[in-house]
């Protein structure tokens, strides 16, 4: 504390304006705290160890990578690898220790279409990194506005909370967009599957053909179907591959499709007939959803009508007669 008081007195002597001196002192203190936290983090995580960085880089490379492939990396890939090398060790410290929590977080990443190695470490590392970086940026940004110290600390705390929550919010939005894209592409895929199965193709061959046909119009669904085909060609059982398709997409319509296909395989019924019946049920379900949304329109329009349209209507229609009545009552 004595050192801080001496530093503050030195700034007061060098800078005539007391408020500017106080803001400079707060800025220097914030930068010092950030530098201290960064130094402790680097020492704790061992990022300064070149041998550990080299081992992690070798572990992240695929087994069949060649020197030519390594030399063809772009500058953007190098920057991305550098950021991941900084963020991944941070994520290991923040990652939950419970296996159930890790499985749930990894399942959410799979539903968002993120299946790269180390994605879980990168996600938690981004949460921790933004939670530390944004408060420092917020403290520096408040200096030109001469914000009081308590307000600045409150803004920094809010920025830390935003930085910690922002990756989860981004992941939720990405899951919603991908789920919507999968649901929109499923009817076309079902129609093509029915045609392929009735033409004599098996389920695996039909799914691979549909994945090729939907690669341009529905890339998300085509990617999932292509991955299913790769799993079956690699030797995975069809039932296991269907269960994995259900888990990594998290879409209710695909879950119902997988359940219908598994029941058809279990009881020996026709795959084409099962697909046709489920496609008909899915159309009825979508029709009911559209009718439900249409029925909710009148209720949703009630609040804008009452709070936005009716007040202006009453002002226009009743305003002039009221003004005339007030003038008549006032005797003018």
Describe this protein's structure.
The chain has 13 helices and no strands. With 332 residues, the chain is mainly alpha-helical. Helix 9 packs antiparallel against helix 10. The longest helix is centred in the last third of the chain and has 60 residues, at 271-330. It is flat and about 85 Å long. Mean pLDDT is 79; it is low at 59-79. Pfam families: T2SSF (PF00482). Keywords: Cell membrane, Membrane, Transmembrane, Transmembrane helix. Residues 190-316 form the Type II secretion system protein GspF domain. The chain crosses the membrane at residues 20-48, 124-145, 151-171, 302-323.
Which key phrases capture this entry?
single chain, 332 residues, mainly alpha, 83% helix
Task: Provide a quick synopsis of the model.
It contains 13 helices and no strands. The chain is mostly helical.
- What is the overall shape? flat
Structural class computed from helices and strand pairing: mainly alpha
Helical content (DSSP H or I, runs of 4+): over 70%
**Biggest sheet architecture:** none
- Give the amount of beta strand, in percent: under 5%
Rounded to the nearest angstrom, the radius of gyration is: 30 Å
